[in-house]
């Protein structure tokens, strides 16, 4: 039996904050469209965050088209459940044409222009024929796990960060967390605060102060325009898209994450995890250099704030200087999991995109879409919700509205010109 074919002007793939923001703009502009969501709207906030998760950006950053945080604590940090509730209320404000549990399985170009989006869902197989497609599924699809991970002893529990919920989920014993980006650092903290023995394999993630000179650092950075600067204007240009986000936390009202202090309290810090088999792991001796580099970024950002305050004659508390509280005396390059009592490994290395269902030639050699502000070289095909899509703010609530407005304006402009494909 052949699939049903339905026609619409625009197909938006993804019902998270980026897809819903696009839908809000298109609904406002009277553009016929449909939003396809493989699970439920914004499900990743509920399904892929641990129990103690909080935003690392202040609540006032939470702004979507026609919808902004208006709670009692704009400078605080919403918990996972609060984010789920806040974002869950968005769709009700404008009634998007949302099809949940409807997965896009294939995107191909339509003969003569436009696209065909094959789907599977409650109504079976349906093909949507559209002039425009907005892929708003984000860029974090497949967890990065070393190819040798299956060679570890099967008695060791292995868990990807998206599936971590709380320390009680893991077997008794010490835990190795691999990766010191936002997720890895916060999961290591979560385990550490409950008294678990934690080993943390450091990557190259930088860190940032939570507050400096009387204000949240991210509020300073916003005032300084860093979240609004196009990626092309940053040193290195588009290579900024490869940078790891700074680690910090919004937990308990927000604070720094200082891995050196955790080490003083008993956390074991290691360099880059290089290889493993059975119960044996090997590390590169890079922990000291990783800590120094993270601190250098921390200090550099604070100095930028100092210069901003001085240049604008602002009244603020005096500057301060960070002094390292711990340094590694010797670096571990080999570890026996059994000898250390390590019973589980949490992989928090990061994610890579997975667009294998998109059969349109707009990708680079690493499988990432090539675009300018979300607009690809193929007329009518757009991407949204990617980190550094246009600015540093693009991958955050703060920048989604601007990106969605830009892409929607490209679509509505083509509709106004009566062009079937824009």
From TrEMBL:
PANTHER family xref list: FLAVIN-BINDING MONOOXYGENASE-LIKE PROTEIN (AFU_ORTHOLOGUE AFUA_4G09220), FLAVIN-CONTAINING MONOOXYGENASE
What keywords are assigned to this protein? Answer: Oxidoreductase
| Single GO molecular function | monooxygenase activity
Q: Which Pfam families match?
A: Pyr_redox_3
Q: What is this protein called?
A: MSMEG_0569 family flavin-dependent oxidoreductase
**InterPro entries recorded for this chain?**
Auxin_biosynth/cation_transpt, CHP04046_FMN-dependent, FAD/NAD-bd_sf
Query: In terms of domain of life, where is this protein from?
Result: Bacteria
């Amino acid at each position: 039996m052949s699939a049903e074919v339905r026609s619409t002007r625009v197909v938006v793939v993804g019902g998270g904050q980026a897809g819903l923001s696009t839908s809000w703009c298109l609904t406002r502009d009277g553009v016929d469209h449909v939003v396809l969501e493989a699970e439920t709207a914004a499900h990743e906030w509920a399904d892929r965050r641990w129990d103690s998760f909080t935003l690392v950006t202040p609540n006032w950053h939470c702004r979507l088209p026609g919808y902004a945080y208006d709670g009692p604590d704009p400078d605080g940090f919403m918990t996972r459940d609060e984010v789920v509730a806040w974002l869950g209320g968005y769709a009700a404000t404008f009634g998007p044409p949302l099809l949940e549990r409807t997965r896009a399985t294939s995107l191909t170009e339509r003969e003569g222009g436009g696209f065909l989006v094959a789907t599977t869902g409650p109504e079976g197989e349906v093909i949507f024929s559209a002039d425009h497609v907005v892929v708003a599924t984000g860029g974090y699809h497949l967890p990065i796990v070393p190819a040798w991970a299956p060679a570890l002893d099967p008695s060791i529990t292995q868990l990807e960060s998206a599936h971590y919920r709380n320390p009680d989920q893991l077997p008794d014993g010490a835990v190795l967390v691999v990766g010191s980006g936002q997720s890895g650092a916060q999961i290591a903290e979560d385990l550490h605060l409950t008294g678990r023995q934690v080993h943390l394999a450091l990557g190259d993630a930088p860190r940032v102060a939570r507050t400096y000179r009387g204000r949240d650092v991210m509020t300073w950075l916003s005032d300084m325009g860093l979240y609004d600067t196009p990626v092309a204007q940053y040193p290195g240009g588009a290579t900024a898209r490869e940078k790891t986000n700074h680690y910090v936390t919004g937990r308990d009202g927000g604070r720094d994450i200082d891995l050196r202090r955790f080490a003083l309290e008993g956390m074991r810090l290691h360099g880059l995890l290089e290889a493993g088999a059975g119960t044996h792991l090997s590390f590169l001796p890079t922990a000291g250099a990783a800590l120094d580099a993270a601190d250098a970024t921390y200090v550099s950002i604070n100095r930028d704030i100092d210069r901003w305050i001085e240049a604008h004659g602002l009244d603020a508390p005096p500057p301060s200087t960070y002094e390292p509280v711990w340094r590694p005396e010797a670096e571990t390059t080999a570890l026996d999991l059994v000898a250390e009592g390590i019973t589980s490994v949490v992989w928090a290395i990061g994610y890579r995109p997975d667009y294998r269902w998109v059969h349109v030639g707009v990708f680079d050699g690493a499988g990432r879409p090539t675009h300018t502000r979300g607009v690809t070289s193929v007329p009518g095909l757009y991407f949204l919700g990617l980190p550094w899509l246009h600015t540093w703010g693009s991958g955050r609530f703060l920048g989604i509205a601007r990106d969605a407005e830009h892409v929607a304006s490209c679509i509505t402009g083509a509709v106004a010109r009566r062009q079937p494909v824009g």
